[in-house]
Amino acid sequence: MLNIVIFGAPGSGKGTQSARIVEKYGLNHISTGDVLRAEIKNGTELGKTAKGYIDNGQLIPDALMIDILASVFDSFKDSKGVIFDGFPRTIAQADALKAMLKERGQEVSVMLDLEVPEDELMTRLIKRGQECGRADDNEETIKKRLVVYHSQTAPLIDWYKKDGKYCHINGLGTMEGIFADICTAIDKL
Ligand code: ATP
């Protein structure tokens, strides 16, 4: 199986590029943000818990996310592969993902880090907030999410470098150009 982690700050384009990867390579998309938004929409207990964290720009606790991830991943077993979008976001989640895949005789194939400058992230997220009405895409929450990204999520860059899975992608440019760079990285696998 291909197990691709797509990584980057909020607004780096993980969701957009994941959709293209899914279409071209026939992979399954696991977006933890989408899973949580669906729970919120359906008014489940999990959704109620998640909403409090998301609206405040915070991460959902690791133990909860790790359980969710394992059950979603198992629903795709024996498929061509999976793209992890929005997971892992902490070192504990990266450790858990590695252990979970190992138990299933799998490993992460590559971690694609979409790098985008901070001012561009702000512009994109504010625009998305205005267009899609996503409650967490307002200036105050975006700033909190970026702080959380730098403190809790960015350390994963070194974690994946040490694990030998890191691949840098320039996340600035046309969507086609960025996707072409992603395909070059995937085709090497
Ligand atoms: P994109 O690059 O697609 O714009 P994003 O970072 O803006 O991504 P999502 O990935 O959709 O947004 O995540 C939205 C929110 O859901 C996060 O701010 C966080 O509160 C919660 N969340 C999603 N994934 C996780 C996770 N793995 N661990 C903890 N919380 C998570």
From TrEMBL:
MF-aspect GO terms: AMP kinase activity; ATP binding
Gene3D superfamilies on file: P-loop containing nucleotide triphosphate hydrolases
EC numbers: 2.7.4.3
Residue positions binding ATP: G11, S12, G13, K14, G15, T16, R128, G173
Reactions catalysed, as given in the entry: AMP + ATP = 2 ADP
A Pfam family per the record: ADK
Biological process per Gene Ontology, one example term: AMP salvage
Cellular compartments per GO CC: cytoplasm
Key words of the record: ATP-binding, Cytoplasm, Kinase, Nucleotide biosynthesis, Nucleotide-binding, Transferase
Subcellular location field: Cytoplasm
Region (NMP): 31-60
Binding-site residues for AMP, renumbered to this chain: T32, R37, Q58, L59, I60, G86, F87, P88, R89, Q93, R134, R145
Pathway membership, UniProt: Purine metabolism; AMP biosynthesis via salvage pathway; AMP from ADP: step 1/1
InterPro entries attached to this UniProt entry: Adenylat/UMP-CMP_kin, Adenylat_kinase_CS, P-loop_NTPase
Role according to the record: Catalyzes the reversible transfer of the terminal phosphate group between ATP and AMP. Plays an important role in cellular energy homeostasis and in adenine nucleotide metabolism.
Domain notes for this protein: Consists of three domains, a large central CORE domain and two small peripheral domains, NMPbind and LID, which undergo movements during catalysis. The LID domain closes over the site of phosphoryl transfer upon ATP binding. Assembling and dissambling the active center during each catalytic cycle provides an effective means to prevent ATP hydrolysis.
Subunit structure: Monomer.
Family that this chain belongs to: Belongs to the adenylate kinase family.
Name of the protein this chain belongs to: Adenylate kinase
Organism: Phocaeicola barnesiae
Gene that specifies this protein: adk
